[in-house]
UniProtKB/TrEMBL annotation:
<dbReference type="Pfam" id="PF01435">
    <property type="entry name" value="Peptidase_M48"/>
</dbReference>
<keyword id="KW-1133">Transmembrane helix</keyword>
<comment type="similarity">
    <text>Belongs to the peptidase M48 family.</text>
</comment>
<feature type="compositionally biased region" description="Basic and acidic residues">
    <location>
        <begin position="323"/>
        <end position="342"/>
    </location>
</feature>
<dbReference type="GO" id="GO:0046872">
    <property type="term" value="F:metal ion binding"/>
</dbReference>
<keyword id="KW-0645">Protease</keyword>
<dbReference type="GO" id="GO:0004222">
    <property type="term" value="F:metalloendopeptidase activity"/>
</dbReference>
<dbReference type="InterPro" id="IPR001915">
    <property type="entry name" value="Peptidase_M48"/>
</dbReference>
<feature type="transmembrane region" description="Helical">
    <location>
        <begin position="96"/>
        <end position="120"/>
    </location>
</feature>
<keyword id="KW-0472">Membrane</keyword>
<dbReference type="InterPro" id="IPR051156">
    <property type="entry name" value="Mito/Outer_Membr_Metalloprot"/>
</dbReference>
<keyword id="KW-0479">Metal-binding</keyword>
<dbReference type="Pfam" id="PF23368">
    <property type="entry name" value="DUF7092"/>
</dbReference>
<protein>
    <submittedName>
        <fullName>Zn-dependent protease with chaperone function</fullName>
    </submittedName>
</protein>
<feature type="region of interest" description="Disordered">
    <location>
        <begin position="323"/>
        <end position="378"/>
    </location>
</feature>
<keyword id="KW-0482">Metalloprotease</keyword>
<keyword id="KW-0812">Transmembrane</keyword>
Amino acid sequence: MGIFGRYYRAGSSEQIHAEILHQESQLTLHSQNGEILQNLALGDCTLSAPIGRMPYRIEFPNGDCVECEDHASIEAIFQPKHHLRLVHYWERSRHFALLALLMLPLVTLLYIKVGLPILAKELSPRIPKEVLLTLDEQALKQMENYFKESKLDENQRSLLDRAWQRLPENQRYTLLSKNSPAMGANAFALPGGHILVTDDLVTALNNENEILAVLAHEAGHVEQHHGLRNVIQSLGTVALLTVIVGDISALAETVLVSGPVLFQQLSYSRDLEREADQFSINQLQQLQVPSSCLGAGLNHLMASHGFADVTDVVVEDAKLTPTEKTKDISNQEGEATPKEVSPEAASPEALSETSPEETTGENKDDNKEPGWKERLKKQLGLDEEIDFSEVFNYMQTHPATEERIEAAGGTDCPAPAVK
């Protein structure tokens, strides 16, 4: 019994039903009316790679080809390599297709959470210094509109310079002092070793040791190539998701590519911040400076950006009962002392959904529109309260300040002895 297929002449879409005959190393094709379409050695034919259940395609030297859906017969003639046959079997198997579909999210997650960080950590130190300096120049040029010349007075400049001179191996870095009202008290490091410090940061910190701790933290970002690791991690994530989804629209790109990159990047950044904190702590210990100076610096930076002193908030909050917390919140708002409330009503979630009028029993609008949490619950058809605390915690680029202060050993930072 012969093998049948569809024959196509070069440059033509006309379909000719043909019979394929194989004798030893010779391949012959006949049309239904007996015309010999091809008669040549098997080695002169080219067999396409199998793709799932799609027909095999045999191409001939003159450009003609024949397609055949009888996989078993074609494989018996051409005897493809074992690994190709195995792959072809996997592609045709529904069980393997289902298994691959189930494994894809797991493999993708492992690649993003484990593979890419390892790749970024190994690759980043191999980038030439010249490339890093070029990146720094471009970054500084793009940000030049955000910075002005430093306005530090002589004492503040002297404080910053003394801290810089104490930083180990400071010749590896370049210190830039700028005034930036838009950025406020801040410091950041670029991949090529530039460390930029704003005037407000120097003003916000209490003494030379706190400035030294922050400089050491930024030096940690440089030494451990955190900037490059972030870039490599982001590009690797985008590349993987683009391969998975293929040619995607702008909307799909935003949802499927930018979204996962953002969430992954936020978590990754927190790990890098912890590494930089530990680098700073190690440097301070080497200089016999209390590691708590890093905690003090972080605390004062938070206060300069409008947040309450972290240490005071933690200590005072621990002393209050749920009822006292509710009273304290109302008193801060300038309201009268509220009536007693249950511990459940005084929970952070309940307080976040309660207006000052509701807290004091003076709800002025019984027809008030439901909050965004209630609307989302209704849209999702949920009966239980949604706890967004873990989501918000995950979306922070830095670890919680309380956690970082605790790791540094507190906020006690004595000024260095005057020589």
